[in-house]
Amino acid sequence: MEHRSINHYYRQAKFLISAASIKQLPDGDSIEVAFVGRSNAGKSSAINVLCDNKGLAKISRTPGRTRLINLFSLDDKRKLVDLPGYGFAKVPLPIKQEWERLMEQYLQQTHRLKGVVIIMDIRHPLKPFDTHMLDWCQHFGLPTHILLTKADKLKKGPQKSTLLQTKKQLENGGYTSSIQTFSALNKTGLDQLVGVMNTWLDLNE
Ligand SMILES: Nc1nc2c(ncn2[C@@H]2O[C@H](COP(=O)(O)OP(=O)(O)OP(=O)(O)O)[C@@H](O)[C@H]2O)c(=O)[nH]1
Ligand SMILES: [Mg+2]
Predict the structure, then answer these.
(1) I want to staple 137 with a disulfide (CB 3.0 to 4.6 A). Which of 47, 92, 142, 201 is the partner?
(2) The pLDDT of residue 88 is above 70
(3) For the sheet containing 69-75, what is the strand order?
(4) Is 159 in the pocket of ligand 1 (CB under 6 A)?
């Protein structure tokens, strides 16, 4: 019930553009929060739950469909960004290099980007792709927030222990990211995500 009012603002999100290169991204001084994660991790689903709009970002039946940067506008000053991701190892080298270039170019635009939400399947946290993203964000001084999503796939006990274990791994690796459990299926953790987003997007009065 609570989330209905708390994320009311995000309901106005509208699809803006799919971009294959950063040249296609609109200029301007709007601020952004990006969602990134391995293919099939649940990025688009998390965006749709946040915005209470099932049809906003396309949910893929085939993993790895999102090859473009998808932009959604919240208002004239704020945007959400669905970044392409994949399982790191299986991707052919040229595609991987192209992706690295796109990501690096995009993440460098730190004047626009206020934070990065890194989506991980709670059953497979901190894969090489994820630490690669954490390294990048740390390098560019970008704050990160981790969603251990698909929490509904585990019982409460294993959810908690995975959260604690992953927190410990982050600490040991010298990462300063915040982290939470999440489920797009039953909306657990939505309030916490909205809290982080509101801070990054400067929406707290
Ligand atoms: N049970 C459960 N399934 C989920 C959850 N989030 C996403 N899924 C499912 O996971 C699959 C992938 O979800 P997407 O949101 O399309 O994932 P994505 O990260 O955007 O995928 P790509 O854009 O292809 O990289 C879909 O079948 C979703 O229905 C969740 O919280 N719980
Ligand atoms: Mg997607």
Answers:
(1) 142
(2) no
(3) 14-19, 69-75, 78-82, 31-37, 113-121, 144-149, 178-181
(4) no
Backbone angles phi, psi at 75, to 5 degrees: -150, -170
pLDDT at 6 exceeding the cut of 80? no
Neighbouring residues of 139: CB distance < 8 A, sequence distance ≥ 6: none
Atom 1, ligand 1: residue with shortest CA distance:
150
Computed over every residue of the chain, the mean pLDDT equals 88
48 lines ligand 1 (CB under 6 A): no
**Is residue 3's pLDDT more than 70?**
no
Nearest CA to ligand 1 atom 30: 150
Tell me, in angstroms, the distance from the centre of ligand 2 to residue 65's CA.
7
